[in-house]
Amino acid sequence: MSPEFKEKDFAVIGTMSFFSRRLRAGDTIVFTHQHYGTLIKRIQRIDNEGVYVIGAHENSLDSRRLGPIEPAKIQGRVIWHIRRS
Fold first, then answer.
1. Quick check: 23 and 51 in contact, CB under 8 A?
2. Whole-prediction pTM value?
3. What domains sit in the chain, N to C, each tagged with a CATH number?
4. More confident residue, 67 or 16
């Protein structure tokens, strides 16, 4: 999610059990991907196949390459972003 999130920034996440509100387009989530590890992306849309995500710029790794994200792979929603100086 560069340039919004930079190396050494902190992201506080609410786990799926922590927040009762359903995920919505525009939420920023943390999830795991079998090939890319842990990622932070913004939700573009949600449908029956899963969650589709976008990055912060047009060349970002997103659902165009990742496909839909399975809800079970989502670790949580970013509730606070702490930027490092």
1. yes
2. 0.82
3. 10-82 (2.10.109.10)
4. 67
